[in-house]
């Protein structure tokens, strides 16, 4: 009742082509953005449906065991909509159409618990949003400050030390940093809880630090590079010639104009937090959608996997859309260019 045939592999390859092709859609107009968003959502759902068919194993065997009677296995397979009335496995197109129909009617159910998948995701999603918020807060609090400090002392030992620490923060993988933080601050010093989300804000500090450290390091390097590039512009020299203090030059003139590349990275990283929190949530036993996704893959609960991937894909494109809008708010030149293109 599982496995992949040649048509499955062909359609799976087509799904990946759609997903990759959406990256080259024109995004300078709202129609292009809308087409790109739809293409990403369709490509992501097609790809995950095809990948699940390539995974070895059978959900029926996983639930009943391989020693269950054939009649019980067939009945469960029909209840899970894995086979048709004649007992033949459903093809890729039939399964994908069934998935879209069930999602639109909120009838996508877990194989094991028979609960609505969207309800299960809604229960877990606030935990992931809570974790992503504190990880982003951690990164935005530390990263830009260190980047500005390094740019203000360009070429000094302090600048070299900060950039070395930033490179180290980017290089440390989360599956190493998470246990290291647990050993230091939970087991050795007993400052924070070991796992779970039962101790309020104290529970989220270590997972957020583990998730946000690499982001803070990346932002520090980006802010430093952007500010150093902006500081060579003519309007910075004019601001200094007017007698403005260095703090006014950096924070009022240089920082705002250096934010565009930083916002791009922040937007991409914020979307990546939802998808990349799987390892962190597993290490700290954080009850978010990342842990739900991992548990569902282990149990071959395909509807939950499809629902989580669709949720993450939608969040990713929505955050990228907000990032594009923030460009226009920060840089008036982009806003005027957008208006001019709309009037053409």
Proportion of residues in helical segments: over 70%
H/E element order: HHHHHHHHHHHHHHHH
Distance between the termini: 55 Å
Query: Mind telling me the CATH class of the largest domain?
Result: Mainly Alpha
Specify the structural class: mainly alpha
Mean pLDDT: 80
Largest sheet: none
Q: Could you name the ranges where pLDDT drops below 50 across 5 or more consecutive residues?
A: none
What global shape is seen? elongated
Count of β-strands: 0
CATH architecture of the largest domain: Orthogonal Bundle
State the CATH superfamily name of the largest domain.
MetI-like
Report the C-alpha radius of gyration, rounded. 24 Å
Task: Report on this structure.
- The protein is mainly α and 344 residues long.
- The chain folds into 2 domains: 6-104, no CATH class; 117-343, MetI-like fold, CATH 1.10.3720.
- It is built from 16 helices and no strands.
- Helix 1 packs antiparallel against helix 2, helix 6 (117-152) runs antiparallel to helix 7 and helix 9 packs across helix 11.
- The protein starts with 5 loop residues before the first helix and ends with a helix.
């Amino acid at each position: 009742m599982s496995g992949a045939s040649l048509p499955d592999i062909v359609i799976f390859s087509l799904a990946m082509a759609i997903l990759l092709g959406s990256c080259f859609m024109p995004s300078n107009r709202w129609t292009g953005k809308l087409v790109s968003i739809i293409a990403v959502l369709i490509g992501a759902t097609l790809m995950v449906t095809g990948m699940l068919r390539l995974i070895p194993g059978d959900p029926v065997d996983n639930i009943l065991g391989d020693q269950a009677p054939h009649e019980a296995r067939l009945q469960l397979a029909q209840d899970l909509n894995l086979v048709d009335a004649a007992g033949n496995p459903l093809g890729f197109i039939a399964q994908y159409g069934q998935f879209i129909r069930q999602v639109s009617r909120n009838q996508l159910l877990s194989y094991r618990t028979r609960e609505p998948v969207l309800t299960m995701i809604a229960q877990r999603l606030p935990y992931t949003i809570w974790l992503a918020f504190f990880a982003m807060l951690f990164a935005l609090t530390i990263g830009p400050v260190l980047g500005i400090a390094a740019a203000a002392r360009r070429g000094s030992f302090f600048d070299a030390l900060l950039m070395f620490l930033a490179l180290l923060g980017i290089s440390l993988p989360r599956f190493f940093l998470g246990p290291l933080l647990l050993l230091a601050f939970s087991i050795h010093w007993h400052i924070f809880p070991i796992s779970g989300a039962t101790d309020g804000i104290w529970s989220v500090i270590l997972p957020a630090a583990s998730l946000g450290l690499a982001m803070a390091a990346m932002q520090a390097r980006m802010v430093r590079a952007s500010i150093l590039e902006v500081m060579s512009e003519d309007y910075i020299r004019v601001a200094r010639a007017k007698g403005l203090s260095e703090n006014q030059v950096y924070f009022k003139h240089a920082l705002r104009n250096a934010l565009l590349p930083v916002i791009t990275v922040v937007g991409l990283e914020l979307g990546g937090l939802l998808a990349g929190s799987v390892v962190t949530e597993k290490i700290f036993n954080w009850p978010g959608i990342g842990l739900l996704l991992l548990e569902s893959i282990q149990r071959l609960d395909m509807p939950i996997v499809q629902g989580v991937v669709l949720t993450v894909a939608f969040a990713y494109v929505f955050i990228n859309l907000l990032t594009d809008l923030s460009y226009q708010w920060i840089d008036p030149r982009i806003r005027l260019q957008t208006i001019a293109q709309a009037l053409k």
